[in-house]
Amino acid sequence: MDKKMSVVEHLGELRYRLLFSLTAFLIGALLVYLNMDNVIRWLLAPLGGKTLHFTGPADGFFITIQIAVVGGIMLGLPVFVYQVLAFILPGCTPKERRVIFSSIPPAIILFFLGVLFGKQILFPFVLHFFIGIGEAYLNPMLLGSKYFSFLVLLTLAMGLLFQIPLVMVALSRLGVIKSCKLRATRMYGYISIFMAMGIIIPSPDLLTLAGVCLPVILLYESSIWFIYLMEKVKAKKEKINYA
C-alpha cells in the first residue's frame, strides 16, 4: 500500500518535480541555442532558397529564443512526461498504472514521428501551396516570426494527431472501447481524418490529400487490429484460467 502524504509533502514533491523538469528544459534549450546555425539551416530547408525578413531590430534575437524554447520543450518532453506521471501515479489503480507506464515510450515515439512527418512532408507542401497562390498576383515577403510560428503550430499539431492510436489502445485496455465498435464505425474515423487534414491542408488535389492522410489512416487502422488481437489474447487467457 502506498504511503499517504500530507499536503505539505505533496507540494514539496511537486516543487521537486517541477524543478527537475525545468532543468531538463533549460539544458535542452541551451543545446539547441549552441547549435542554432545547424537548426536554422534545417528549419529553412523547405523554403528552397527563399529569404526570410524581419521588421524590428530585435526580431532576429527573439526568433532564436523562440526556436531555443521550442527545442528545449521538445528535448525535455520525455523528462517532463515522466515527472508528471510519477506525481499522479500513486493515486491510480494498479491497472491504470500498467496502462500508463506501458504507454509512455510509444507516446513519445509517436509524437516525434508526427513532428518529423509534419516538418519533412506536410509543412513543405502546405508552404509551397500557400506561396504558390500568393505569387500569382503578389510578391511574397516572408517574415521570419510568422514562418517559424506557422512551422511550430503545424508540426506540434501533427505530433498530437499521431497520438490517436495510442489513445485508442489505452482506452481499449481500460475497457472503454471495443474493436468491434471501432470496425463498425471505421468509416467515420476515416472521414474525420480527411476533414482534419483538409482543414490543415486546403488542397484541391484529392490525390495529394489522400497521400498525406495515408500515414495517419494506417496508424488508425493498425490500432483497430492491434486492439482486436489484444482482445483475442485476453479472451484466450481468460478461457485457459477458467478451465
Automatic annotation (TrEMBL):
GO terms for cellular component: TAT protein transport complex. Keywords: Cell membrane, Membrane, Protein transport, Translocation, Transmembrane, Transmembrane helix, Transport. Part of the twin-arginine translocation (Tat) system that transports large folded proteins containing a characteristic twin-arginine motif in their signal peptide across membranes. The chain crosses the membrane at residues 16-34, 61-88, 108-131, 151-175, 187-203, 209-229. It comes from Thermanaerosceptrum fracticalcis. The gene is tatC. Forms a complex with TatA. It comes from the Bacteria. It holds the Pfam family TatC. NCBIfam families: tatC. This is Sec-independent protein translocase protein TatC. It is a multi-pass membrane protein. The keyword Membrane applies. GO terms for biological process: intracellular protein transmembrane transport; protein transport by the Tat complex. PROSITE patterns: TATC. GO terms for molecular function: proton motive force dependent protein transmembrane transporter activity. It is found in: Cell membrane; Membrane. Belongs to the TatC family.
